[in-house]
Amino acid sequence: MIGKHHQNFIAQPLIKANTVEYRKYQATIVEKCLKGNTLVVLPTGLGKTIIAAIVAAHRLSKHPDSKCIMLAPTRPLVNQHCEIFKSVLNLPTHEINAITGTVKPQNRTNILNSSKVVLMTPQILENDLIAGRCDLSSVSLIIFDEAHRAIGNYPYVYIAKEYMKQAKYPLILGLTASPGSKREKIEEICKNLYISQIESRTEYSPDVRPYIHPIYIEWKTVKLPPDFLKIKILLEILLKEKLKILKEYGYLESLDTKKISRKNLLELRAKIQSELAEYLRPPSSLFSVSLAIAEALKLSHMLELLETQGITPVADYITRMEREAKRPGHQKATETLLNNDRFPELKKLIQKLVRENYEHPKIKETVNMVSRHLQLNKEARIIVFTKFRNTAKKLVEELSQINGIRPARFVGQVSKDTDAGLTQKEQLKTLEKFKEGIYNVLVATSVAEEGLDIAECDLVICYDTVPSAIRQIQRRGRTGRRRPGRMVILIAEKTRDEAYFWSARHKEKIMKQVIKEISTKLNTINIDTMSTSLDAFKQTQTELMVCVDNRELRSQTAKCLAELGVKLVPEQLTVADYIISDRVAVERKTTEDFLQSIIDKRLFQQLANLKKSYTAPILIIEGENIYKGKAISPDAVRGALASIVLDFGIPILWTKTPSETAHLIYALTKREQIKEKRYPSIKKEKVPLSDKELQEYIVSSLPGIDLTLARRLLKDLKTVENVFTASEDTLKKVKGIGEKTAKKIREILTLSYNDSE
User: Fold this and answer.
1) What b/e readout covers 77-94, taking b as 16+ CB neighbours within 10 angstroms?
2) Is the pLDDT of residue 527 over 50?
3) Given strand 441-444, what is the order of strands in its sheet?
4) What is the DSSP string of 410-424?
5) What's the pLDDT at 69?
6) How far apart are CA 655 and CA 584, in angstroms?
7) N or C: lower Cβ tally within 10 Å for the chain?
8) Pick from 731, 736, 733: which is nearest to 708 by CA?
9) Residue 151 — very low, low, confident or very high, per pLDDT cuts 50/70/90?
10) Distance (Å, rounded) from C-alpha 400 to C-alpha 153?
11) Which of 172, 189, 169, 171 is nearest to 180 (CA)?
12) How distant, in Å, are the alpha carbons of 124, 137, 179 from that of 159?
């Protein structure tokens, strides 16, 4: 049981006296968490981090020689949690430490070994586990903040698996404001984090209600003016033309633009790309469908901007399309759309409204609401949420013109074209000024929705709606903590605003029902099956060791090998990707990389170096459809394969997935090291890098960039300098570079070097 002082504070040896208010719901949740792996679902502002700190105190009391780890997705969140733990736990401050990407690997190991509580970003812990720099055996509690991320290949999944494999006395605590509304996703989170029970509360739970204040939620509709509707109708006509093509080829059943979402189009695009890859010479119909989808996506985005944001964002988007059309290698869809017979009329209507400073009615409504609220309460704090940076910029400009309103824009770190992002230091400084009242209005994008400690707000305005239950709950959690709060959702009548609003409400309702059902049935889900197999694995596993190239550590193959129990020794290898023994070395190539290496003529030099250094070299080609390359004929590919086997005497092994590659390397390693007693040996003779290889090596050192992506970046942007100076939007235009990777690249390239760490 959790003790309670008469002053209504928690009494626990490792909790500082008179620091943590006793709250019954927190005490109940903590007691449950100490009994098994638990997913805690609790709205923002109700003390998830405090619960984590109390659970950590109990685990450290029970296992004095152990340590606790808390993981959070971003560096600001890690530092924020670290400060809370230091303020709450009765431990020397040097035993509570934060570890992020700014800390060198060797220093990370030293900090982890000397600390009782460590707060980390998951990518760092995953990298250290794969590289064998980290041991979780003495960790008695691991906390996964924002646990709804524990799906797919997110680092949480691998870390949880390794933790359950290594820890002497494991306990997992997952924290989230919302795990999502889909049953499959919630069950996947529970499976990936080995969850045996769910503790869920809402603002309306009986044991929570005494600690929160009511939140008055209202939605206000605005009507689009007639000139907006003319543009909307024209965009819908253009969009239906593209949807008609998709329907004619059997990919759609309806032409109703309200029923076809951006998500539907993205899923359809992925399907078409998969079908294109299956053909040596794809039929022209697939190219027509692919082009129609690309144009439909652009038109759908323009419609969303018009309906929910305003005229200026649409005009800016068209300007960006026109600039793109002038660049070499631009999307064909951009050019085709701009050349559409109806497009000049559309552009003319938009430019007319821009000249007349005609903006979305939601802008005026937002300014009026903020102004009225601050007139009634000059000390109030207000957050305005919007999905788009341009809208945030426009709102700040409009709000700044009103006496008494002191707005600040709060956006992510990555700079987009001429729009500079906020560094993490700038973000924290802005939040501090907001708390102090220097700013009284925060106009924020999604970066303010998740996790960050933002001052209590009297009013939250949702300039646009989001179809996500998670985001809607997070937005709502910014008010009603210490005093009654108000949330206003602006909805443009008869637009996707309405659809998004009802979608989010429906998803939240489903989420609560699904959590309740899964919670009552969790004891029938075989959560312990994996744990049992892991225990057996521990008993039978003989340690195997493979030297792996540093750049290969980012691959799923390396992660799978580590999951199989192979100790990976990271090295800067000049020959091969994996060295298994003194005679066996493996060069791994995806089908795409293999084809590109034939084109740029580096394949045979690599294989010659491999053959020279090791007596039993192996080439693994990973993927399907080796003959899919447009720039190289099937006969050329067959000729290269014949040369590898006959001229170089190197066997080729084929795999379909990274997991299959890992299992194959594992089998080779077992044979060499267990049966033959032969162990890895790195040949010290260095093979000089060509200028081309040096360029590839430099670019592939960027976060999230393997050799294949490095070559694409260099091919599209021409020079290393262009890659390093490219904006986030430019990076995202390169195939395979997503928003997260582009954002991380810009972050690391603009991060100030700290020589004291």
Assistant:
1) bbebbbebbbebbebeee
2) no
3) 215-222, 485-492, 459-462, 382-385, 441-444, 407-410
4) E--S--BTTB----H
5) 97
6) 18
7) N
8) 736
9) very high
10) 43
11) 189
12) 11, 13, 19
